[in-house]
Amino acid sequence: MVEDYGVSDATGLAALVASGQVSPTELLDDALRAVERLNPALNAVVLMQEGVARKAIAQGLPQGPFLGVPFLLKDLGAEAVDFPSHNGSRLLANTRYDQDSSIFKRMQATGVVTFGRTTSPEGGIGTATESAVYGAPTRNPWNLDHTPGGSSGGAGAAVAAGIVAFAHGSDGGGSVRIPASCCGLFGFKPTRARLPDGPYAGEGWAGMAIDGFLTRSVRDTAIMLDACEGADLGAPYCAPPLGAGHAAAISRPPRRLRVAVCETTFTGEAIHPDCRDAVLQTAKLLESLGHHVEMARPRADVTGMMRAWTDLVGVGTALAVTSALKGRPLSADLVEAVGRGAVAYAATLPPTRYLQAVGEIHAFGRQMAAFFEPEDGAGHDILLSATLAEPPAKVGRFAHVTEDYVAYRTGPNGIFAYSPFCAVFNASGQPAASLPLAQSAIGLPIGLHLAAPFGRDEELIALCAEIERAAPWAHRRPPAPQ
Description:
By secondary structure, this protein is of the alpha/beta class. It has a single domain (10-301, 359-470), classed as Amidase signature (AS) enzymes, CATH 3.90.1300. The protein has helices spanning 10-18, 24-42, 50-59, 102-108, 153-161, 177-183, 218-228, 246-249, 273-288, 302-325, 337-348, 353-372, 405-410, 415-418, 422-428, 457-470; strands at residues 45-46, 70-74, 113-118, 166-171, 186-189, 210-215, 258-261, 292-295, 382-386, 432-439, 445-451. An eight-stranded mixed β-sheet has the order 4-6-5-10-11-9-7-8, with helices on both faces. Strands 1-3-2 form a three-stranded mixed β-sheet. Helix 10 (302-325) packs across helix 12 (353-372). The longest helix has 24 residues, at 302-325. It is globular and about 55 Å long. Pfam families: Amidase. This is 6-aminohexanoate-cyclic-dimer hydrolase. InterPro entries: Amidase, Amidase_CS, Amidase_dom, AS_sf.
């Protein structure tokens, strides 16, 4: 076994391969042993393709920055010929693709050794990963009674447990940042359209969804973003161009920034005391680094955005489900309760509602952009909050067992009450990140959330790297499996 496997980040493992100390085959063997040892308790890794991985090594891997490093795809999106997908759903189980997606091609070009997929909730909906197609919930390696988050929950669990050093995810309402918060990892959502969607989609959820990565270090995310960024052929729009890139940005501290700190939700409700304390401690850290810190929160219409987000995703879910049914009845053995509820809810909306909701999302994005604009010299560069309003939820709390889709999203005990921060920046399109800077009183990870103006990905990730150097988190590991 490779001594540093399960502890090192992906950049560190790639350096071992480059120096000849280990081979890609040895790393893959370690990854497969980790799956065998850890996955029965976690239920995070599915649809294993060991033969595909070994064939890729034998044929010669691309000479990229992660040559030989084991890698996993989320079981939602990242379409690839050699990697069939359930897409988190019994309705779409064992879906095969006739061509590789652009994001998959770019990830593969880094030299990673992809050998399977990670679990996702049906339709990518929710902050937990408990899809019926996998037979059991996915669990958090920090505490098996708690969720690793969603919708990239399997990716978060696999990276936190040490099965892989990093993994693919995607984020349409926090689905990278929520698992990062729950699992003690770094998760970064780029500016809208920074990464390619094609050819299977023109855009995800009206532009709110984007791919991303669950990593142990800022540098792994930065390098992978640089490898994958840029519009693909025929993209409907693209993000503002980068400067020198994410990896160059993290090599030096950012300028001193004006940081707005929100210790409540963006609508003023109290959050869990452990999360609030973590926000205030992070504010002190930023102040000690020379950044200007002040209490402030945006006045944008978050409640209206959440209604529009719910309608957009409901219509998108209905379209996906009805297309996949191909005339079959919508039954409980094919689609879980939340999905069936989304289909029913979408049928109640007027045909003009989708475009109306898109307009509301765009208006909200302008409201959020205004918060970061200078106003008599008082504009903000960064907005700091918690990633979630409380520590990781118990398994079962957000299972897809209700057909009341709207209450599941926006009810008093729903998804948005638990995760009131993340979707804001999917709607606005702004870059945002979750950093693993704190733990709850019972030792569960707590993520801290940073967001920046549209297109300012490099400045945000440079700040994340500065924080990582000042308050390292690599030493924090889940307890050994029992």
